[in-house]
Design goal:
This protein has helices spanning 2-15, 33-36, 61-73, 77-85, 93-105, 109-122, 127-139, 143-155, 162-171, and strands at residues 43-45, 50-52. It has 178 residues and is mainly α. The chain folds into two domains: 1-20 and 94-178, Alpha Horseshoe (Serine Threonine Protein Phosphatase 5, Tetratricopeptide repeat); 31-88, no CATH class. Strands 1-2 form a two-stranded antiparallel ribbon. A hairpin with a 4-residue loop joins strand 1 (43-45) and strand 2 (50-52). Helix 1 runs antiparallel to helix 9 (162-171), helix 3 runs antiparallel to helix 4 and helix 4 runs antiparallel to helix 5 (93-105). 42% of the residues are buried.
């Protein structure tokens, strides 16, 4: 356990901070008008300075993903699901993973696991989905399943990643908001 704690500290020092949930960024998304002004799953458009429906043609799935991520950090889970539902590619593993994450936060564990499984079916190497799935398994008391996801993360090149570190922390009983 001492080695695990030291390896987590090394990961944090090497990256500057543990990678933020859902992205390659090391910091949470900064709140924008999307989460401070817009309502009902709308996304702020800087060009028109208005809140628009997430289905608007000027938004692509990356915009939608980033808006949903910001909303999730702000605890706006229902709004995040609204944005994710407007994705053009419903099979995008990022979209599926975040649907899983948000549903897990809303207490819908079975639905969350179905979304994580769908994301991994599309991309078995998507270690973030494996980490979120593992964290959900820990919350359900399935430590064997969670450890299996940790093994998969490492086997798929995720050693030293936020995905690995956050799942290790969950397995050690360190509860995270993510």
């Amino acid at each position: 356990m001492k080695t695990t704690i030291l390896s987590l500290a090394a990961v944090t020092l090497m990256s500057g901070a543990a990678l933020a949930a859902g992205s390659d960024s090391t910091t949470p998304p900064k709140p924008t008008e999307t989460t401070t002004v817009c309502q009902d799953g709308q996304i702020f458009d800087a060009a028109t300075k208005t809140c628009l429906d997430s289905k608007a043609d000027l938004f692509d799935d990356t915009n939608r993903y980033e808006a949903a991520r910001e909303m999730a950090y702000a605890g706006q889970y229902t709004e995040a699901l609204t944005v994710l539902a407007s994705a053009e590619n419903a099979s995008d593993p990022r979209i599926l993973n975040y649907k899983g994450f948000v549903n897990r936060k809303l207490g819908h564990s079975d639905l969350a696991m179905a979304y994580y499984t769908a994301a991994l079916k599309v991309d078995p190497d998507y270690i973030l989905a494996r980490s979120y799935m593992g964290q959900g398994l820990v919350a359900e008391g399935d430590f064997v399943g969670a450890r299996n996801q940790l093994i998969e993360i490492r086997a798929r090149g995720g050693e030293g990643s936020w995905a690995e570190a956050s799942l290790e922390q969950a397995l050690m009983g360190q509860v995270s908001d993510w």
